[in-house]
Amino acid sequence: xxxxxxxxxxxxxxxxESAFAADLPVKTPATPPDVPFFLLIDDRVTxxxxxxxxxxxxxxxxxxxxxxxxxxxxxxxxxHFDIWRYGTNxxxxxxxxxxxxxxxxxxxxxxxxLNPANGTTTAAxxxxxxxxxxxxxxxxxxxxxxxxxxxTYGPLRNISFEGGLxxxxxxxxxxxxxxxxVSGLQFQFDLxxxxxxxxxxxxxxxxxxxxxxxxxxxxxxxxVPGVNCLIDGHRSYKPTWAIETNYYMDLxxxxxxxxxxxVSGRAAWYGPKGPELSPLPYNPLPAAAPSNIQTAIExxxxxxxxxxxxxxxxxxxxxxxxxxxxxxxxxxxxxxGADHKLSRYCNFSPGVSNGTCTESSVYSGISMxx
Length: 370
Prior knowledge:
The chain is mostly beta strands and 370 residues long.
């Protein structure tokens, strides 16, 4: 709209000049500058450290017989965000390196003592797993598509179509290979101090994944393909609902000499997507090899991240958010949809949790814009 207003104002100025000075040479109006395709491009790299990660059914046995479920994780990530004429694009590609408590394949199964003489377990004997994961989200704003401000009202800034995908793989024994699509709407609201809060009700479809233990002949599954084992370990789930939210706000109420801080966060809920080993039929009996109970609502969140704008503090406002140092809290319940109360991946026996399906950890990192 600003571009159209500029053209309209220039036309009025040219018309007035020619009307009152018709006997003078008419000046050719200056050509307005082209609106760039991208209004904003923000690319960043991040390194983060999480001391207390979890993975379903992943643990080691200490020499005293106690269970160690903590997995220290190093996270390396590339993030791209852009705003163009009709919407936004977000891409995050991360590489997560686990410590020895989540072993890479090939290695022994988790919790197995390799050397009874000294109590050596998988925590000391195996290379940590590496996880590569990508998230893509794109929006098309209704105000921009229809050339209107009708979808801005009060704190509501815009409504958008949203779509995207998730894809990832890991080199552990299960060898997951997730591929999922999401589509729906996004509602964007204003917060104080130029902040925002986005809510996106979505349809989510995890149409492909892999599970090494469910593969026929793995030693952990049954012998009948399509009944109690998958020939190639390939899982495919039903579409389900999802709600993704995120927010950001500068702490603009702080004194001028302390306005280097901001808060942000996200929370996402994903509905049940069918049996854990879908398309194998639902079967809750432990005697089945493997048992196959229903997935649960997955809650994946980072409720708060406190960010310190180190580059602004060191070099001034011109370099705001070129270097950010942050600390955050992460909470992930029913990880990957595994029911923390019922799933055999989350419990040693019915009602006896192994504590691996709920991730709760403080973590910190540094992000650099380039």
